[in-house]
Structures are given as C-alpha cells and as structure tokens.
Amino acid sequence: MGVSGSGKSTVAEAVAERLGLPFAEADRFHPQANIDKMSAGTPLTDEDRRPWLESLAEWIGEHDRQGRSTVTACSALKRSYRDILRSRAADVRFLHLDGDTETLARRLHARKGHFMPESLLRSQQATLEPLADDEPGATLDIAPPAEEVVERAVRIAAAAIGSAEGPRGSAQG
After folding, report:
1. What's the predicted TM-score (pTM) here?
2. CB 77 within 8 A of CB 3
3. Cα–Cα distance for residue pair 41/18, rounded to 1 Å
C-alpha cells in the first residue's frame, strides 16, 4: 500500500514472483470512468473507489477460499479501504511503502505510460491514513535501493505467510 510512486507494483510483483504467489495489479481493477477521472487530474471519491476495492477484495477472497495466499499492489490509502480489502479473506496484511514527497515526486515525474499524474500526489498524501497499531502489517522506507526494499518486503511477506494459519494470507504492497 502507499501513494503513487512509492514502488507498490515493482515491490509487490517481485514479492509474488519470489514467493510463487498470484499477483494482482489493483490499477487493472479500476473501471474506465476512474481511469478517465484520474487521467484528467481529478481525485477519486470514496464512492468512485468502492466498486474497485470490492472487485479486488473478491479476487483476494476467491484465492483465500482456495487456500492460496496472494500479493496485490494497491494504494489502500484509508483504513476504510483496507477494511473492504479485508472483508472477503481471513488474513490480509498490508505493507506500507513510505517515502518523502521529493522522492515520490521525482519517481512520478520519471514514470512514463501511467494514467496517474504527478499533480495528484499531494491529494493522495492528504488522503493517506498510515497503518494503525491494530492493523496487521508493516511499514517500509522506500529510500534504500529498490532491491533492498524488495528483499525486506520478501522477508516480511514470507514471515506473514508462515505465521498465518496454513498457507493463507494476502499481502498488499
């Protein structure tokens, strides 16, 4: 989880690959109306996000019912959004990729071919509710080199899956 530019997709995809888990890029679950809105620089509302989050929660839940852990790359900015993602699976954990505004803006400026404009970074940061003490998960600083962040994320996810009941659990990067 985290704001745009935090490395969610890069880290989550690498974690899924190294642990042999199904991976979902949450952006692919957005309806076209949401993509159009964000592309135009308009922040999404909670109403806009609900069907998107419910669709992703269902994907997580389908795998959970099969006894399979998953990894997704999803912003999950608010606790209420994370509650939706947790609604269909027994053990969903979050890995918050956190960084300073300058680093995030630099990454967004360098990114090509993504619908999320750099102009929405401040809106996402204002919306972000870091993990609460009672939410299962961890926070990782994105300042170190990407491979170091990935290695830490793999260790955290592997430990979470190992401590979950059976091979279940879902890590949200």
Report:
1. 0.84
2. yes
3. 35
Residue 155's identity, in one-letter code, is: R
Query: 54 and 34 in contact (C-beta within 8 Å)?
Result: no
Contact between 53 and 78 (Cβ < 8 Å): no
Per-residue pLDDT of the chain (173 residues; tens, 9 = 90+): 999 889 999 999 999 999 999 999 998 999 999 989 988 888 889 999 999 999 999 999 999 999 999 999 999 999 999 999 999 998 999 999 999 988 888 877 766 655 555 567 788 898 999 999 999 999 999 999 999 999 999 999 999 998 443 334 455 55
Q: Could you identify the residue written with the tokens 């900015």? A: 77
Query: Helix, strand or coil for residue 116?
Result: coil
DSSP reduced 3-state for 103? helix
As given in the structure block, the two tokens for residue 60 are: 């997580």
Report DSSP state, residue 98.
E
Start-to-end CA span in the chain (Å): 5
Q: How far apart are CA 89 and CA 134, in angstroms?
A: 17
C-alpha closest to that of 14 among 169, 160, 159, 152: 152
| CB 48, CB 146: distance < 8 Å | no
